[in-house]
Amino acid sequence: MHYLQIKNLEKKFENFSFHIKNISIQKGCFFGILGHSGAGKSTLLNLLCGFEQPDSGDILLEGKSILSQKPHERGIAYVFQNSLLFEGLSVYENLTYLFKAKGLKVKEEFIESSLSECEVLHVKNRDVKTLSGGERQRVSLAMALMMRANFLLLDEPFSNLDTALKIKMRLFLKKIIHAHNITAIMVTHDKDDAFLLFDEMVLLEDGSILQSGTPKSIYENPQTLSVAQYFGFENIYKIKEVNEVFELCFDESLEGYLLIPYHAISFGGDLVQKVFEKIYIEGRYKIKCESGLVLFSSNDVNEKFSISINKEFCTFLAD
Amino acid sequence: MKKIYILLFIFIILFCLPLVYVFFIGFAKLDFFELARTTFMSFSLALFATFLSFMFALPSAFAYVYYRSKFVNFTILLLCLLPPFLLSILFSSLFFYLGIGESFFSLSFAHMLSILPYSFIFMVLGLSFVPKQATYFAKLYASNFLKGYWLFYFPFMKPAILVAFLLGVSISLSQYILTLMLAKPGFTTLILRMTPFVQSGDVQSAATYGIVFLLNTLLALYLFFRLKNALSTD
């Protein structure tokens, strides 16, 4: 049985309609929700938390509907982009704050263990004002772990961190999530998060799911033009155009686009290409040809060079 | 630096001497117990009216910020736009009809209506200081609304609430016509006592009441700082 299930969830707003057909999440899964601004990521989180009620559909936790439960009864821990820590209070006082809110007795062992797990036990008595960005996020995560929640929601938790810290925090978060077998749902627009963190993910656009699966399966088999564009794929052509420019024989009756991934292009062959633009990036050349084709080469190339395209690697994209 | 201190000292002497003179000369002419009673009545009325205004302003501000609808907007704007004086008279008529027209409560209610628009504006301002995360935490972690408000909203709203408190007390203290019209016989406030002295040309007595009036405002300011420290959630 799935741990968390979202079934035909629908919510209509004045200018926006949100409809999620089906999402199933296993216990301990690190689940990602990707999408641009306005895709419906926040709406999904609000519905999961119970801040908003859907017009129809259901959310099931271990087979039981949680729609009738109030937000504080759902057992959700939340980690934000900007952590909510009260300055002027110590880390310890900030953690006890949540126990006060829940009306529970402060459990010292929970505080100690979660701070220790998140490697911030040494800042326990420090004012949160003095913490660095990374430490603040770790303390936020410790807060979330401490509550022993049913599932953890993370709303772009790394977007305010610099690149080096972001990489470190991603590895750290993944380790913590899997060590505790926590079911986590993270919202992000950064596709790097998807590859480094998520076990499974959905890509949202205009309030509905574009594609779902593992990050690898979605990346390797994008089904629509939007998904391919989201992942930043270049070399997307209309089928007729491909046949004319690259002398390939695809069925022109098909409506849609064709993606020629980089690994489908190899040097040497019948197709002569002329360099339009050549940029050296991170140890290799990114070459843009006059035909519009973009490819990578570890060696420098002449003004004119020949290539071949392996049709089998090309992916058909629905409009 | 020293020059500044000397100038400051001269200024204080120049400013305080007439006050001290007026206070003691005027004070000798007045009934101390009457003055103390009036001060107590004024201040308790101001505090109660301010407290009452918060009771109305806070939920209204919540409704305005988080649950805005045409009805909420209309009601709140109506309350803010209608002259408080008119509303007070309206409500007082109702209170008279109910037989509680000259009570402390009805007078406080009238004062409250004068303070309400300002309290409401400051509450809305205070709510704008509450970050989105705090509102989420209040809903996710607090076992009830009051606890959520106290732990997650209040720390951010505190500065605005304190300013609203100070303003509310000051407005109530300076209400003349409303108090004159609605207070029961025998109930008097500083501004009510001061005005006849001004009109009759008894400047010393009027100034003494004025100084006590000023002390009341300073007392409100003192309470403001005490509350600032005391209303801490940690």
Question: Could you explain the architecture of this structure?
Answer:
The complex is a heterodimer of chains A (319) and B (234). By secondary structure, chain A is of the alpha+beta class. Chain A folds into 2 domains: 4-229, Rossmann fold (3-Layer(aba) Sandwich); 236-317, Beta Barrel (OB fold (Dihydrolipoamide Acetyltransferase, E2P)). In chain A, 28% of the residues lie in helices and 32% in strands. Chain A contains 9 helices and 17 strands. Chain A has helices at residues 41-49, 91-102, 108-117, 133-146, 163-180, 191-197, 215-220, 225-230, 239-246, and strands at 4-12, 17-25, 30-35, 56-61, 64-65, 76-79, 151-155, 183-188, 200-205, 208-213, 236-238, 257-259, 265-281, 284-289, 294-297, 304-309, 315-317. In chain A, β4 and β5 form a beta hairpin. In chain A, α2 packs parallel to α4 and α3 packs across α4. The model of chain A has no long low-confidence stretch (mean pLDDT 86). Chain B folds into 2 domains: 1-30; 31-230, Orthogonal Bundle (MetI-like fold). Chain B has 10 helices and no strands. Chain B has helices at residues 2-29, 32-66, 70-81, 84-98, 104-128, 132-141, 145-173, 177-182, 190-200, 203-230. The chains are: A alpha+beta (319), B mainly alpha (234). At the A-B interface, β6 and α2 of A face α6 and α7 of B.
